[in-house]
Design brief:
One of its GO terms (molecular function) is hydrolase activity. The protein has 26 helices and 11 strands. The protein is mainly alpha-helical. The strands form 4 sheets. A 4-stranded mixed sheet has the order 2-3-5-4. A 3-stranded mixed sheet has the order 6-8-7.
């Protein structure tokens, strides 16, 4: 069961996620009218109950600071000091405020859906999730009963052969704790889906937690957590403590054969290792892939991607030399741990204490409604999204966004054409890729079909498990079939955006299209400094260190002249050095290599957005709003987007696990390389926000 972890990457969009801002899948249903999502017109929204958004305000500027010396402090310091992180969060800022607003909208919709006991379709799914998730008394009364059949099956695994068979049968229900398996767009033929098996099996966020001395305390806390979960599941305390050591030793062995998140994020090739089933079977004799495909109800393919082969080879060895009793312990722990957020209070609280409080510094658990909505979004997010866009996304927002996207496209094209470091040969291919970009705005043109997902008012965990199995079968059902380019990797209510290199598409869900990112009533410079920079960011991902490895059709191919690739690397090395120098906390530096893709996208995106803003406002007088020039307001709204603070533990967590640099460095990293910023604020050479000569980074 991989409900709460262990670390199994969701691979349908794992490549996209590693390249994206900041994401599974039976044949799609016949096209539905996206403008008229299928739900009763009775769904309403009480705007008065929604939390506010975070707009740029002149009053928030800290005029005791100099924008050229401390731009982050100048634009955000005052606001952050007055708005501490809420107890139920580990970070707080513009993104989180919009997420709270989206959650409040979702709650109203879920409550209305749950009230209709005769509902069908997506309304029934949403209502059943909400009603069972909010029935705390029933969940507590049921205790561990919803998992008992699974625990009984694990207790019967007295041979390694039975363990291997259990791994196959549990995977067929979408409950594989050991490795990720799903569909992947074929790197060689991006019109088709293939199967992909990836690494997984770790309860901690990254393989480095098991070996890095800096993570020693977290590893010890994890062992204690494992023991507590086993004890809660019925194992005597003394036995639980011993078994916890076995689990940690088991996972440490897996970790040694695993790639780190930093390695994975900067090497897209790791996802694609095409092999025949015969060759895969030779590598893992104790876990034959031919039998695995058959157990999942899949036809034997000509090839599939066995990603991180060393990991799978190690699993095969462990199936031979790790006693069945230790496999039982490992599987029992992860089965209970993965289900803990959906079980009784004792399990919920232990789960929170380790994964949120200990690992990330969260002081208070989120109230139940927020947690239920997180589960609903994880299991049936696009079903809820059909209700969301009906009440929360005005049609004029989509029209305005389409104009912005086109303007950003035009500006990016001009920037590529004017590059002085790229040959005409490579430039032509870069423009071919530009011409093939597909933008998606707001919500899908074709909604996913949820027929076959049977939910009820009987069990919260039962609904979560049903959705997990449904989503798994939907996703692997695509293997060997053509890619459906209408699919989305994020639901409309998610505050985010992404670029998918295998589809060469940029995607902007409805929930991010609000202030400070986007406001249909705002002046151009504010929208270009907000969502314009995000649009540019996603487009630039097509040309970052990983996105550039994919061609116009999404094929993984080298379309660069050798000299141009070398010139690109020389420029990105300077950006790596820039971010390596940023100190997030005493002795804790940003990893410029790990965050390179996002930093390239920020730099290219902001430059592109600035050019587009200047073109859109050409010939019009500068309004000098509130005493600020148009250019100043452009950069100030960009800074407002990155208004964000973190708990100490969350900051450490993100430095290890996040491909994005902390927000305060994103606010200054790109602008400091732009002469337009220095001109806007009359900055002088030598000031921190002025990078000159060899230190200035110019890429796209």
């Amino acid at each position: 069961m991989s409900l709460n972890k262990p670390q199994v990457l969701v691979l349908s969009l794992a490549v996209a996620a590693s390249l994206a801002a900041c994401a599974k899948k039976e044949e799609a249903a016949p096209a539905a009218d996206a403008a008229k999502p299928a739900q009763p017109a009775a769904y309403t929204l009480d705007e008065s109950k929604l939390p506010g958004v975070n707009r740029f305000a002149v009053a928030d500027l800290d005029t005791t600071k100099n924008a050229c010396e401390d731009f982050g402090g100048y634009v955000n310091g005052k606001w952050l000091a007055a708005n501490p992180i809420p107890g139920d969060r580990t970070s707080w800022g513009a993104f989180e405020m919009l997420a709270e607003r989206s959650t409040a909208v979702q709650r109203q919709l879920a409550e209305q859906a749950a009230a209709d006991k005769a509902a069908t379709g997506v309304q029934k799914i949403v209502g059943d999730f909400w009603a069972t998730g909010m029935d705390e008394a029933k969940i507590n009364q049921q205790g561990l009963a919803p998992l008992q059949s699974r625990l009984d099956a694990i207790a019967a695994l007295d041979t390694q052969e039975k363990v291997a068979d259990y791994l196959r049968t549990s995977a067929a229900k979408g409950e594989n704790v050991l490795f990720g398996f799903d569909s992947l767009i074929d790197y060689d033929d991006p019109t088709m889906n293939i199967g992909v098996a990836f690494q997984g099996g770790l309860g901690l966020p990254d393989s480095t937690y098991y070996s890095d001395p800096k993570q020693k305390e977290k590893l010890a806390a994890y062992e204690t957590h494992v023991a507590k979960v086993l004890e809660l599941s019925g194992v005597p305390a003394a036995d639980a403590a011993k078994q916890a050591k076995d689990v940690v030793a088991f996972e440490t062995r897996l970790a040694k054969a695993s790639k780190s998140r930093a390695e994975i994020s900067r090497d897209s090739k790791l996802y694609f290792n095409p092999v025949t089933l015969a060759d895969a079977d030779k590598l893992t004799p104790n876990f034959p892939w031919t039998k695995f495909f058959e157990s999942q109800g899949l036809a034997v393919p000509a090839k599939f991607s066995l990603a991180i082969p060393a990991f799978h080879a190690e699993v095969s060895k462990m199936l031979a030399d790790v006693p069945a009793a230790k496999w039982q312990t490992y599987l029992r722990f992860h089965t209970v741990d993965g289900a803990s957020p959906y079980l009784s209070d004792a399990f919920v609280n232990e789960n929170f204490d380790f994964y949120n409080k200990t690992l990330r510094g969260q002081k208070e658990i989120k109230e139940r409604g927020k947690r239920v909505l997180e589960a609903l979004n994880g299991g049936a997010g696009e079903a809820l999204g059909q209700l969301y866009v009906k009440v929360a996304f005005p049609a004029d927002s989509k029209a305005r966004m389409e104009t912005l996207v086109q303007n950003l496209r035009d500006s990016l094209k001009t920037r590529i054409e004017n590059l002085d470091w790229m040959s005409d040969e490579t430039k032509k291919k870069a423009l071919d890729k530009w011409a093939a970009f597909t933008p998606k705005i707001g919500y899908p043109d074709k909604w996913r079909d949820w027929t076959g997902l049977d939910t009820s008012r009987d069990s919260y965990l039962g609904n979560v498990l049903a959705a997990q199995e449904f989503n798994y079968k939907w996703d692997i059902g695509k293997i060997g079939k053509p890619v459906d380019r209408t699919e989305w990797g994020m639901p409309p209510q998610m505050v985010n955006a992404y670029y998918n290199p295998s589809m060469n598409e940029i995607v902007f869900p409805a929930a991010i299209l609000q202030p400070p990112f986007f406001d249909p009533k705002a002046t151009d410079e504010m929208n270009y400094g907000g969502i314009g920079a995000v649009i540019g960011h996603e487009m630039t991902h097509g040309y970052d260190d990983q996105g550039r490895l994919f061609g116009p059709t999404g094929k993984f191919e080298d379309w660069w002249a050798e000299a141009d690739a070398k010139g690109f690397s020389g420029r990105t090395d300077k950006l790596i050095a820039q971010f390596n120098a940023y100190e997030a906390a005493p002795g804790l530096h940003v990893d410029g290599s790990h965050t390179l893709g996002e930093n390239i996208a920020d730099l290219g995106g902001l430059n592109t957005a600035y050019d587009a803003m200047k073109k859109a406002t050409a010939g019009t007088p500068d309004p000098n709003t509130d005493g600020l020039t148009r250019d100043q307001r452009f950069f100030l709204n960009f800074g407002t987007v990155w208004r964000r603070s973190f708990t100490d533990d969350e900051l450490k967590y993100r430095i290890t696990n996040d491909e994005h640099a902390p927000a305060n460095f994103r606010a200054i990293g790109a602008p400091s390389n732009m002469p337009a910023f220095a001109a806007a604020f009359s900055c002088k050479p030598g000031q921190p926000m002025v990078r000159e000569g060899d230190k200035q980074v110019v890429i796209w």
